[in-house]
Design a protein that fits this description.
Length: 254
């Protein structure tokens, strides 16, 4: 949450809280300023007030979000025909290229809040990943971290994100991509069951069974089956997803 938003809501902060907000804002600026990729929303700079205090990020102007495209006129679930396979594959390909860029950086960058509202569409129809406010730079040489907990949007969140004792790495973003692919095909928001029932941890394939059954494009099932899994080391990487989607698009009629 930036300072302008806090001010608009008239939230009074202590000096320590203001300092924390400012540090988070600077971290977001730092991450955005390092990223230049055709599938990541372009960062232009920071707007400041007359006292030279930062107020908000200045980003590339985008037409709409992927959420708007999945749910035309705001109808949830989607009404009428599903999104076409070609359109879904093109958008997911754009997003996978963005993730490939983020995850291949040294140190890697995790988005950690990938969902349709954070994927934006420009005038040409190109999808770009935006809203890196929750992004986290992995500073460990092992390319994973245990320092992030509870970040993201629960319905799209990888299971390890809810456990402070589990390592978090690029695979967390790949899980969210799988949930998003399922939503694009089914035309309905994810609605997983509880993670723990009668003290038993419920596997993701079980708690998301209804969402997975609603997939309307058989070609996407293999993709989702390699992303929406509990074991992080079993999920496809961004390069695997990109290659798979390129094959799907190549097989479609011109």
């Amino acid at each position: 949450m930036d300072q302008a938003h806090l001010q608009a809501q008239r939230i009074e902060l202590s000096d320590a809280e203001r300092q924390g907000v400012l540090l988070n804002f600077i971290e977001e600026c730092s991450i955005n300023s390092l990223l230049r990729h055709p599938n990541i929303v372009m960062f232009h700079g920071v707007a400041v007030d007359p006292n030279n205090e930062p107020r908000f990020l200045m980003m590339e102007l985008m037409e709409r979000s992927l959420h708007d495209e999945i749910y035309p006129r705001g109808a949830t679930p989607r009404q009428g025909e599903p999104m076409s396979l070609a359109r879904i594959a093109l958008i997911l390909l754009d997003v996978s290229r963005a993730l490939e860029h983020l995850h291949s950086r040294r140190p890697p960058v995790l988005h950690l809040d990938l969902k349709p509202k954070n994927v934006l569409i420009d005038r040409s129809g190109t999808a770009k990943v935006g809203d890196l406010g929750e992004a986290h730079v992995i500073r460990s040489t092992r390319a994973e971290t245990r320092g992030v907990f509870g970040i993201g949007t629960p319905d799209y969140m990888a299971p390890e994100m809810a456990d402070p004792g589990l390592a978090k790495g690029p695979a967390a973003d790949m899980f969210s991509l799988g949930v998003m692919a399922c939503e694009m095909s089914s035309g309905r928001p994810p609605n997983p069951g509880a993670q723990i029932v009668a003290r038993r941890v419920v596997p993701e394939r079980e708690r998301r069974a209804l969402d997975l059954a609603a997939i309307r494009h058989e070609e996407l099932r293999q993709l989702v089956d390699h992303l929406v899994v509990d074991e992080a080391d079993q999920r496809w990487k961004a390069t695997d997803v990109r290659s798979f989607l390129e094959q799907i698009l190549a097989a479609l009629p011109a």
